[in-house]
Amino acid sequence: MRFDVITLFPELFGPFLTNGVTRRAFESGLVDVRLWPLRDHAEGNYRRVDDRPFGGGPGMVMLAEPLERALAAVKADRGEAPPIIIHFTPTGRRIDQALVQEMAQGQGGVLLCGRYEGIDQRFLERHVTLELSLGDFVLSGGELPALALLDAVARLQPGVLGDAASHEQDSFSDGLLDCPHYSRPEVFEGQAVPAPLLSGHHAQIARWRREQSLRLTAERRPELIAAARAAGRLSKEDERFLSSLQ
């Protein structure tokens, strides 16, 4: 898959693409990331990409014309229209694991990283097919959510994680939060690893992890329990355990 990133700050992406476990996805080409500096497509001595908003008010608005030229260059380089154009904005759909899993099976697209007060609405209406948000807070630009999305998609590609089953145990992969994890030593600062994890009994270990996942989700994200129940993902044994918590 291929992602084209239109950004004012392409230098923010370099360290991310060459470090950590997800670099395997980028170096191998499983996830092909190409950066398009927006100022390369601006005109005039100052390569201006923003101007004051009509109607007044604070801040600046990103101009439609440089974005049009940048997107045209992306399309020409791809030789085809990108499958999806994503704009990162607080008003967008919140990114979740279900969306990431869907995108991990797709063909990529264009990631549009806005700045300032926002992007001229006319450009957005002409081109954007999906608006996404990291959550109910405001960032200085779209680069951080773009990096987060690239990381989440890259780690789901075959061969990227050391254990192909690792992501199957992640939080949200089955609609619940992940269980706690432990490693050596068996006792740290007087606190021992839970006994079921030392039993060697695979079914007992699996049940303990499931129960801890249920417990944590019920305590911190009870709406996920309700969603899992509505989707029929909770067994009778799960329900008995949840009842015991109450």
Describe this protein with a few key phrases.
single chain, 246 residues, alpha/beta, Alpha/beta knot, Trp Operon Repressor, Chain A, 2 domains, elongated
Overview of this protein structure:
- The protein folds into 2 domains: 2-154, Alpha/beta knot, CATH 3.40.1280.10; 171-245, tRNA(m1g37)methyltransferase, domain 2 (Trp Operon Repressor, Chain A), CATH 1.10.1270.20.
- The protein is α/β, with parallel strands linked by helices.
- The strands form 3 sheets. The protein has a 5-stranded parallel beta sheet, sandwiched between helices.
- Helix content is 37%, strand content 16%.
Radius of gyration: 22 Å
Fraction of residues in H or I helices: 25-40%
Put simply, the count of helices is: 9
Q: Output the CATH class name of the largest domain.
A: Alpha Beta
Largest sheet properties: 5 strands, parallel
Task: Compute the separation of the termini in Å.
Answer: 46 Å
Say how many strands there are.
Answer: 9
Order of helices and strands: EHHEEEHEHEHEHEEHHH
Mean of all residue-level pLDDT scores = 93
Overall form: elongated
CATH topology of the largest domain: Alpha/beta knot
- Provide the low-confidence segments as ranges: none
What would you say the CATH architecture of the largest domain is? 3-Layer(aba) Sandwich
Q: How large a portion of the residues is in β-strands, by DSSP E?
A: 15-25%
The secondary structure category is alpha/beta
Order of strands, main sheet, comes to 2-1-6-5-7
* CATH homologous superfamily classification of the largest domain: SPOUT methyltransferase, trefoil knot domain
Number of domains: 2
